[in-house]
Structure formats: C-alpha cells, structure tokens
Design brief:
Blueprint: E1 5-7, E2 23-25, E3 32-34, E4 39-41, H1 56-59, E5 60-62, E6 66-69, E7 73-83, E8 90-99, H2 101-108, H3 110-114, E9 122-126, E10 140-144, E11 153-156, H4 162-169, H5 173-186
Parallel strand pairs: 4-8
Antiparallel strand pairs: 1-4, 2-3, 5-6, 6-7, 7-8, 8-9, 9-10, 10-11
Length: 192
C-alpha cells in the first residue's frame, strides 16, 4: 500500500510579496533540496491499515477523494492549509477525515457537483497522522465546501492544538521548508 504522496504546488513567482525560493538547505540532512513540494498527504486513510490487503476487494472502496470501509466507515479527503506569512503561498496537508454517511453522500454526490451546490459546513474527525504533538489523529475538524471540482477545506476545531494555531496564524517560510524536509525524508524509499 502506497501511503504517501508528494505533489508539487505551483509557485506564483510574479507576486509582489516575497515568493518562496525553489530550493532550501535541509535541517535534517544538510543537503540542498530543489523543487520543494508544498503539498503533502497520504494516499490512503490510517483506518485502511486495519484491513488486511487481501480483504480490500470485498471490504473497501477507495478513490483519490473518498474511502468507504465495510459500508459503515466513510472518509473524505480534504485540504488543510497553513498560510505562509509574507507570501501568497500556503503549505497544504492533504488529510483524510471520518464523516457521517449523510455528509459523505452529500459531498460525493455527482448531482450536487454538477449543479454546483455547496454543502453547509459539517463536523468530522481527522484520520491522518501529521508530525505534531499531541497527535493529529482523532482531532475534531470542520469540513467546508470549496466548490465544485475542488476538495473540501478542513479546519481544526481545537483552537489550542499546534496544528490549529499554525492554520490560524500562518507559518514562516522556514517552517514550511522544515515540514517539507521532514516529509521528504520520512517517505524516502516508500513511494513518495
């Protein structure tokens, strides 16, 4: 199971504000990394690890945007953005969230997408482990529609969690590079 994805994010280099550089010296290994990806997230939810691979065909339905396990656990993939201070860019976590059956149906409905209907915000639980203490898995979040054709936005509900503070206050460019470096090394050799 490929559990990590690295997606490059377009950089707005014509911005009047400070733009991210395209390389950085890694605090983990000391090497210079170029083409810094600012979007990271697992290809599958954590809960999928509990299902034996040979049972996936009968128990799991998964796409890039949603996952259903045993027709009773519903997950939706969304974007948890951390604004990068002093730039027009953001560091984006692609995260999986556990949602209700009704919210899953509404979010994934092709008719609602076609008619460009937005779902009102709804509660969910984060199902992605991110490099934060305390753990991000199990955090209460709110899902907000980003409009047709876009993954929903995810906002952390616990305002005291470090992830919520970074989401609300933004991060320095150096912190974005630190996170990218950590993820780059965490997933090296594992299909990132």
């Amino acid at each position: 199971m490929k559990l990590a994805a690295r997606v490059t994010c377009g950089m707005n280099l014509s911005s009047a504000r400070r733009s991210p550089v395209l390389s950085f010296r890694c605090s983990s290994c000391g090497a210079e990394h170029s083409g810094v990806p600012l979007v990271w997230g697992p290809n599958a939810p954590e809960r999928l690890r509990l299902v034996p691979r040979d049972e996936w065909a009968s128990r799991v339905s998964i796409s890039q945007d949603d996952c259903v396990i045993d027709r009773e656990t519903y997950l939706v993939r969304g974007c948890l953005d951390l604004p990068i201070r002093g730039t027009n860019e953001r560091f984006r976590w692609l995260v999986w969230t556990v949602v209700s059956t009704q919210s899953h149906r509404f979010t994934m409905s092709p008719w609602r997408r076609l008619l460009r209907l937005r779902h009102p915000p709804y509660a969910a639980v984060l199902d992605t482990v991110l490099p934060y203490e305390p753990s991000s898995a199990g955090l209460a979040v709110e899902i907000r529609s980003a409009g047709p054709g876009y993954r929903p936005n995810v906002a952390v509900s616990d305002s005291t969690h470090p992830l919520a503070i970074e989401q609300r206050s933004g991060i320095e460019l150096e912190r974005a590079y630190e996170l990218a470096g950590r993820m780059l090394h965490a997933y090296q050799g594992r299909g990132a």
